[in-house]
Specification:
Elements: H1 2-22, H2 25-43, H3 52-69, E1 73-74, E2 77-78, H4 83-105, H5 117-140, H6 149-175, E3 179-181, E4 185-189, H7 190-210, H8 218-246, H9 261-281
Antiparallel strand pairs: 1-2, 3-4
Helix pairs in contact: 2-3, 2-5, 3-5, 4-5, 4-8, 4-9, 5-6, 5-9, 6-7, 6-8, 6-9, 7-8, 8-9
């Protein structure tokens, strides 16, 4: 299984990086929208509905509406100060606060949503839509003046999350004793979390310098990286919680050794919105 995971990752990573840097912005947004729709399709496995197509209808409609008129992009690029940008940022922030409470209270407080298809669909939209707009808006940042700056920022978040996952794996394997949320994910430990946070902050600071990404100060960028890395862990835990409630092991089987699209981007769905908001408001 590990060999298959490494092989898939070694093929997938160069494709992702090439798409980030070389796809023209409109095609990049279409590609991310396609990934998001695949994620929504996999999310229907978590929804208490008699039909997966029916469960997909509402998220697809919301995605279409958002693509047509809600993007907080101006002629000069990304702008969170617009009304749409503020609304989307607020929705993303509120959702991950709610998701945190849901994970911490699992399994005691699942009765109010575990049998509601509407709520489960809404959770999918709140997970995937902010991911879609934040990735797109980071890539669009200063696109006319510095076409690759946004690409570097997107890759920076990916490196941050990958560092958090890798650091948590090795630190947890070596030092892990205290479980974070054993009812949701019994393999995650506090020691692993600390190792992942340290690794992600270090990688972010080095990569931001190397990529010449502007920021107000190293300490502030470190704070942004720390919070983003913590959010990425929460994204992973939240998907694990939804899978446990739905009684499924993986969201899909499209990626050999990794499961589905959601199984690969669960950490990113939380990391990208959090980083986007924090970076432009603090760093």
């Amino acid at each position: 299984m590990l060999k298959q995971r490494v092989l898939t990752a070694s093929v997938l990573a160069p494709i992702v990086i090439a798409a980030i840097f070389f796809l023209p912005l409109p095609f990049f947004i279409v590609a991310i929208a396609g990934v998001t729709l695949l994620g929504h399709w996999e999310w229907t496995k978590f929804v208490a509905s008699s039909s997966r197509l029916k469960a997909l209808a509402l998220p697809s409609l919301i995605l279409l509406v958002s693509l047509c008129g809600l993007w907080p992009v101006t002629q000069t690029g990304f702008d969170l100060s617009t009304v749409n940008g503020s609304i989307l940022a607020l929705l993303g922030a509120i959702w991950w606060l709610v998701a945190t409470a849901m994970v911490l209270k699992y399994p005691k407080a699942t009765s109010w949503w575990s049998n509601s298809a509407i709520l489960q669909q809404a959770f999918g939209v709140l997970t995937l839509l902010p991911f879609l707009w934040s990735v797109s808006l980071l890539r669009a940042y200063e696109y006319d003046n510095a076409p690759y700056l946004g690409a570097k920022m997107v890759l920076l978040v990916c490196l941050l999350v990958w560092a958090a996952d890798t650091g948590a794996y090795f630190a947890g394997k070596r030092f892990g004793k205290r479980k974070i949320a054993p009812a949701v994910s019994p393999n995650k430990t506090m020691e692993g979390l600390i190792g992942g946070l340290i690794a992600s902050v270090g990688v972010t600071l080095v990569a931001a310098k190397g990529f010449s990404i502007p920021f107000s100060s190293l300490p502030m960028l470190g704070v942004v990286a720390l919070i983003t890395a913590f959010a990425s862990v929460l994204g992973d835990l939240a998907e694990s919680m939804f899978k446990r409630v739905a009684g499924v092991k993986d969201s899909g089987s499209i990626l050999p050794g990794h499961g589905g699209i959601l199984d690969r981007i669960d950490s990113l769905t939380a990391a990208f919105p959090v980083f986007t908001v924090l970076y432009f408001w603090l760093a």
